[in-house]
Specification:
single chain, mainly beta, Immunoglobulin-like, 3-stranded antiparallel β-sheet, 7% helix, DUF4384 domain-containing protein, DUF4384, signal
């Protein structure tokens, strides 16, 4: 069971994410890259009971690497994609609608406490991100990755990761859901 918690110069640009009032990291620079994220249930903030399965869908307008983070009701952030069990890479081709997990992954995401408002943050990047510098697998052989203990720590870590990425090469999207 997965407990869901609650982005031509010769020098790389320093993409510094900013934070919206909703706690979402955003690229403050214009980019042609677009990414859309949605859940398997309709509504602005669909409800899921603890133990129910949840599935995420994404589509990008340019080839991109997709990363999914879950921000739980307590403010903790887990990296949910990529993970150790996903059959496919987290690379998404332009125009494809992709489900996570998909039918070939052999596992499902189940929502679990804490109860309350959760947020899924999608970060799409034209280049792979080096999350090994900041991610922490704390839960043995599971696919849950503890990434940050607060939204501020999440933004700090993503600032490090995104410092090697061109400003126009990454974008975010977010969806909300409620666990009851």
């Amino acid at each position: 069971m997965f407990s869901l918690l609650t982005l031509s110069s010769t020098l790389p640009a320093q993409a510094a994410p900013s934070v919206t009032s909703q706690g979402v990291i955003v690229n403050p620079y214009y980019t042609d890259l677009q990414a859309h994220l949605w859940l398997d249930r309709a509504g602005n903030t669909p409800d899921y009971a603890s133990g129910e399965e949840i599935q995420f869908f994404t589509q990008v307008n340019e080839d991109a690497y997709v990363y999914l983070f879950n921000l739980d009701a307590y403010g903790r952030v887990d990296l949910i994609l990529p993970n150790r069990f996903s059959a496919g890479a987290h690379f998404v081709q332009a125009g494809d609608q992709v489900a996570f997990p998909d039918q070939n992954d052999g596992f499902a995401f189940e929502v679990a406490p804490p109860r309350g408002l959760n947020q899924i943050i999608l970060l799409a990047s034209k280049t792979p991100l080096d999350l090994d510098r900041v991610a922490d697998f704390r839960f043995g052989n599971t696919y849950r990755t503890s990434f940050a203990d607060s939204p501020d720590e999440f933004v700090d870590k993503m600032s490090v990761v995104l410092s090697d990425v061109w400003d126009e090469d990454w974008v975010t999207d977010t969806v909300y859901y409620n666990i009851y």
